Amino acid sequence: MARPPSITDDEVLAAARAVFLDRGVTATVEEVAARCGVGEATVFRRFPTKQALFVAAMDTHNELEWARMLEEHAPKPGRKNAHDTREALLALANGLLATGRKMLPLILMKMSNPAMIDRDRPPARVLKTLRILSDFFAEEIQAGRVRPGDPRVAARIWMGSLQHLIMFETFMKPVDSLSPQVYLEGLVDLFCVPAAPAKKVRKK
Hints:
Elements: H1 9-23, H2 29-36, H3 40-46, H4 50-60, H5 63-73, H6 82-111, H7 124-143, H8 151-171, H9 180-191
Helix pairs in contact: 1-2, 1-4, 2-3, 5-6, 6-8, 6-9, 7-8, 8-9
């Protein structure tokens, strides 16, 4: 008897994402299995229901990339001045924007199929991102490098502004000449306390 082909969970999820994005939620597990080149039983052993497969496929796309992006760009402690804070926030904004652009098709797929997702359990990556941002803003507000306020509100405003930009890029014609980079720099400047001008040394 021939040995069944081996396949990883990541390969199953990649196939499921492609099938669901192409065919919608009406796609079958049989179609996912066919794309993988395995039988339905192989898929069901990893994901017991179609809903479990859909949720996993929609929620894990870019999970590793998301984690790497946060690790690379998330502001770290030890900044010495407002300039360092501004650069850290700008790098994070660019990283989140790039990842968000890739994730938009999956977000829209989930939003259009609310019965297939658990509204009581927000995606772990969203909660993690808000926690990292809240902790960062709390530290920077305490240090006087970011404008005072509730760090949790700052984190949500930050994420909401980036989502707004992505949605505008995707569904609307440009409303003005504001480029994404200028938008991000303006967003960062709304949060950061301006660096104090360098003191001039008086000549004796």
